[in-house]
Amino acid sequence: MVALAITSSSLGQQEAHPGNRTNVAHAIIDRTLYVFGGIRPNYVVLGDLWAFNMATRTWTRIETSGTQPGALQHATMVANGTASLIVFGGTDARGVHSNGLFSLDLQTRTWTQHQPLTTRLGAPARLPALERVRGVKIDARRVLFAGGIGPDGSTNATYAWKLDENVWSRSAYTDMPSALHSHALVS
């Protein structure tokens, strides 16, 4: 990997890096960019996690444990404050859309798979199987997921995951005016 230092206009070579890939999930916490999964030019779908320290301009592969999301492309990643990362959706190597919802505790580097309920005391929620969905943390309690592509095509649906109650539901926000995927959300 070659990195360009904008302030000094110098190029630097680095040995450890995630390599060529596209369709990654990514999030930024403080001065660290996290990159998960994606697909290589030879169509190998990946399930690794890398961190890029913007201050030192170095990549580090993050070794993790727990119930991991597996190899995915087109997943979405959301920063949950500075404590954890959330990964939802994506497509596996067979082209199957995922409805997996995972969080990574950055302190312990342990993945947890979440199986939200429809209400606090309700049945398990049926999460949509989506790729190219986007998520954004809208407050301390909720993550909003919007749009994406599922088995039936693009969607305009919005969903909310209440972290403290582990409840998944169609969002109280209205659906988007039209179906949308591969977009961006910013908080």
From TrEMBL:
This is Galactose oxidase. It comes from the Eukaryota. Gene3D superfamilies: Kelch-type beta propeller (2.120.10.80). Keywords: Kelch repeat, Repeat. The lineage of its organism: Eukaryota, Fungi, Fungi incertae sedis, Blastocladiomycota, Blastocladiomycetes. InterPro entries: Kelch-typ_b-propeller. Transmembrane segments: none annotated.
